[in-house]
User: Fold these one by one.
Assistant:
Number 1:
Amino acid sequence: MTTALQEDNRDHSQPTRWSLVARLHDADETARLAALESLLQRYLPVLEWYLMRHPGLDPHRREDMVQGFVAAKIIEQGILERANQARGRFRTFLLNAFQNYVRDELRRAGAARRTPPGGPLLPFEEAGAVATDESRMDQKLHQAWISQIVQLAITGMEAECAASHRDDVWSIFRSRLLAPLLEGATPEPYGALVKRLKLDSPSQAANLLITAKRMFARHLNVVVSDTVEDSTQAEAELRELKKCL
Amino acid sequence: MSHPPHSILDAAPTRVRELLDCAAAETLLWSTDDLRDVFDHQWATPLAMDLGGLGQAMAEQVETLAVSKQLLLRSFGDLLEHERPPLALLQLSKEFAKRCLHSPHSTIPHDVARVLYFTTIAAALSRCGQRISSLSDARILEGIAWSLDCDWLAEKARTVLRSGQQTLTDRGRQS
């Protein structure tokens, strides 16, 4: 019988956020840069996506703003290290820091353009519309965060399937769930899957899909756990994330 | 700043929600009877089999601790129901449960691992008078209450959890 821990010992999953943040202080510069790159690859797509859709931003400034945030906040101020010691969730900490940075930059750019101090006052209705836009963007940012979390879980699962030669698990997950849900594809019928994956029966295909769902759920749990103080908070965080959707 | 086609970041939130629900349905994949069976099996599993997997040094430590003072702690159940369990063995069991919670490769359902995690903490509190977790009292009580709510949970585990709950509540009253 294979025990849970023997299974666990086969775990070749990605380093955790905590271990990467710790490596930011490594004496070896190559290790430091690699850790920073790994961290940025995880979370930067969300920030970039947000800027691409921000209505108040000049398209030419978006790239500068991402680089500015990385240079000023992540590298100079070390907010990722501070996030480890901060109370509260990593998601809230990072996203708030980023939104504050964007607001400050927009305010600074606006102030430079205005001639009268404080700038012309907006009509009441227009000011309300700006606030609504901002709140809608806040919601979109959190939604993008959740999507990125899901993406990391999917990537982890795909890597595990490849490493353990479980192409059948990945294939059925992709054709029955991922492609239909995220790309609007038609789910591949069980009959076709049985032929393609050389399975014995449709019920074997159904069982394979259950295995795939379990694997995805575990990867999701690992990714979410990495953004909270300890794994016991992962379930609550997942509930919170769902509320944003 | 380019994203691959069908980037998940552009997917409709309702679709992402469906995917999350499908993951959450993992709990539905295990029936109450399944969870009861897995937990009972885990309760009777030899300590050396699971804790030994933590490494060779650990395996030897488990062996030494399990047979010390003629305790003859063969299984998780033996350890958690014992009147004076070795604290170090409880710590190892807690670490094992935690790793099962963390690992995507764990074959134990998360709910079972979570109950095992809080049962070891409860046993350390009530039987050894020691904390083996850095969680706050409120968080431990929350976890114990959650575990007691699992209708598949065996009475022998409930007894351990309740005694831990009592110890923490009494401490709270005293302080």
Number 2:
Amino acid sequence: MVELVKVSKIYPPDVVALENVSILIEKGEMVFLTGKSGAGKTTLLKLICGLEQPDQGLIEVAGKDLSRIRPKDMPYIRQKTGMAYQDFKLLPDQTVAQNIAMPMQVVFRSIRSIKNRVSELLEKLKLDGKHDTLACNLSRGEQQRVALARAVANLPPLILADEPTGNLDGATTRLVMELLEECNDAGSTIILATHDKSIYSNTAHRAVQIRDGYFVPTENN
Amino acid sequence: MTLLTVGLSVLIFSFFLLINTNIIKAGAKLGDDIRLILFLEKEPDPAMTALYRKKITDFTDVKEIRFISRDMAYKKLADQLGNDSDVLADMGSDFLPPSIEVYPNIDLKGLSEIKLFSEYLEKLSGVVKVQYGQEWIERFHYFTELLRVIIILSGGLLVLTTIFMVSYTIKLSVVARQAELKILRLIGATNSYISTPFLVEGFLQGLIGAAIGLTSLYFLFDWIKKNFNNPGLFNFFEFSYIPTSTTLLILAVSVILCTGGSIAAMRKYLRI
């Protein structure tokens, strides 16, 4: 599903975010990217979803070389990639429901199915009462869950989540992980960047540690 | 604000168009009465009459050619004088020159043709002078020319204001929705998904703006017709609204301009 071959990313003037990293993530896999802040996790996710261009190396998503994709075809790649950003990227003057509905509107899903999916996600993430609340009036934890709901709304083939549990307590973290597991069971490939060891230490999923721009194998248990 | 500007531009342009349409209409009516009078040196014999007729019809198509002898001219003048015709008593019936009245198939728009025709007739042998109400025809012609220039200028104003105002409005919308557009791109919105609302906005601004302008013009037209309905003016010709086809054309041009303005703005500010 996702393959990186000898990918490097250097931010000006000479900050090395990733250096010569290679990884193959199979379709339907759930992979945890772990590592300290600034290790390169977010950069890796941004490269995979095409928000950043590598300085070197090859990135293939669903068999397509991202560097060869024409700008006009990029939206169709993004429609198949749900990304929950670390800084949420919600529209503060729109309601929770409107924020979650956006990716479904973009692919012209019916109003009824959008409504049903929004309600379902709000229920799963214990945000039932926040349907019509403006995003700017939510706590950071709630915003984080809305961002995740938006990323998984279309049940895309690839879900990228950048620190999706960073502002959540233990119980809410479990809800988020249950939702991601559910998406994974439904066939989505999931790449989750986190430094919260509790969410990957007892799973059967692969965890990959990034340290100073390099991959380092990690023990799950 | 954009709607009002577009509406006002359409109103100004179509107002002058309305005036021009009616002036041309009036001109066409007046043009039916255009005649050139050729004063002759002497009474033409039948051969000369036939020659004049041939020379005239060779130059242009005419509705009618009427030969007026000295006697006929005298009788006509006496009829016109009515009770005062006795002033002619001592003058004899042959003091007026014979003439030819020519009614050409040229309307008032063809001033240069009338001039050319007049110059040609003046050169015919035996013709002393040609008269055709030169002064008022020229004034009318220059007035219609002036109107044409005003229409072109107001048309230019319409083009500039609609394109400028619409593209400026779209620019403001793009700036106001910057964050939303950025997120839409992140979640996979296509260019057409992003640009459609702006296109619709431009289209509606053109449609509603032109509708406002044309409706205002209709009310203005109605008011003028009701308040200046005196026998001297509008009984001479029927003051009418611009034709439906022209109204639809103005509406279509306004829509095209506004939509074009929004496309230009999107290319510039959205890089679509």
